[in-house]
Design brief:
CATH class: Alpha Beta
Pfam family, one: Aldo_ket_red
CATH topology: TIM Barrel
Protein name: Aldo/keto reductase
GO molecular function: oxidoreductase activity
Radius of gyration: 18 Å
Distance between the termini: 10 Å
Strand order of the largest sheet: 3-4-5-8-9-10-11-12
Shape: globular
Structural class: alpha/beta
Helix content: 25-40%
CATH architecture: Alpha-Beta Barrel
Keywords: Oxidoreductase
Number of domains: 1
Number of strands: 12
Length: 296
């Protein structure tokens, strides 16, 4: 495993992290604690120390799986990033809630679920600019940093071209930007990444495998059934993506190199990217993801 410093936070994170949206059930898979334990144990064995989650991955469900695991391991071995701003109701149904009082309740609920006294990174989660520009919110969050409940603040931007929230990071003491970035979606290179570099912000690349399209598993013409989250994607977009992936496979991926590993390493070859946070459904996928670090 290789490690990079997460911008001005000073945290050293594994370049491959573990994204945990899937633990909330929206991948169409219901995880057990034993399955989560096996995934996180494999990650630790391979040198991964970064876990990214959110309060709305299930109703604190993903956090609870992680907290149960952490309670039986060493907390200091992990950099735990979570997020705020939504109440989960049911699969794919959330309500935005970004007012300061409610976010404080969300933080306390996240700490309880995660079985910890502090989170390493607490991220504003894909909210609009009008709720981001709320001094009361950031003042409250700064107080939580001073109290030791949060080590660092970050922003997970909903649009991968949200320059406003990126540019305001230093002002609100947000030290990390999380953004969709992958070989099919390079938009952050234009404006977001230069701003991150200028401010020395850490960058977490989410959806680095483009929702699995860059995994190498799917050929043009693939059809996803209604148990698969990709069933919700626009069919024409899916067709175009699969055709582009086939071209990338032919023209860019070296012979004999696993495409998913290549795609993760592709993100990390941009020096502004601190870490990628792919999801995974079993220890074998964790192992495959971790192997991407060898391609750097």
């Amino acid at each position: 495993m290789k490690y990079r410093t997460l911008g001005k936070t000073g945290l050293d994170v594994s370049v491959i992290g573990i994204g945990t949206w899937q633990f909330g059930g929206e991948w169409g898979i219901q995880f057990t604690q034993d399955e989560v334990d096996a995934i996180l144990d494999k990650g630790q064995e391979l040198g991964i120390n970064l876990i990214d989650t959110a309060e709305c991955y299930g109703d604190h469900l993903s956090e609870s799986f992680i907290g149960n695991y952490i309670g039986r391991r060493k907390r200091e071995d992990w950099v735990i990033a979570t997020k705020f701003g939504h109440h989960f109701h049911e699969r794919f149904t959330r309500t935005d809630v970004f007012n300061a009082a409610d976010v404080l309740k969300q933080l306390d609920a996240s700490l309880k679920a995660l079985n910890t006294d502090y989170v390493d990174l607490y991220q504003f989660h894909s909210g609009p600019d009008q709720v981001f520009d709320n001094d009361d919110l950031w003042t409250m969050l700064d107080k939580q940093v001073q109290a030791g409940k949060v080590r660092h603040l970050g922003t997970s931007i909903g649009s991968n071209d949200n320059l406003h929230q990126t540019e305001q990071s230093t002002k609100v003491n947000s030290q990390v930007i999380q953004v969709v970035y992958n070989r099919l979606d390079r938009k952050p290179e234009e404006r977001v990444f230069p701003s991150c570099e200028k401010q020395n912000l850490g960058v977490l690349a989410r959806v680095p495998l483009a929702s699995g399209y860059l995994s190498g598993k799917y050929k043009p013409g693939a059809v996803f059934d209604n148990t698969d989250v990709r069933h919700r994607h626009d069919p024409e977009n899916t067709r175009r993506k699969l055709e582009e992936v086939e071209e990338i496979r032919r023209n860019e991926v070296p012979q004999g190199v696993d495409m998913a590993q290549w795609a993760l390493a592709w993100c990390l070859k941009n020096p502004i990217v601190s870490a990628v946070i792919p999801g995974c459904k079993n220890p074998a996928q964790v192992e495959s993801n971790a192997a991407a670090a060898q391609l750097l």
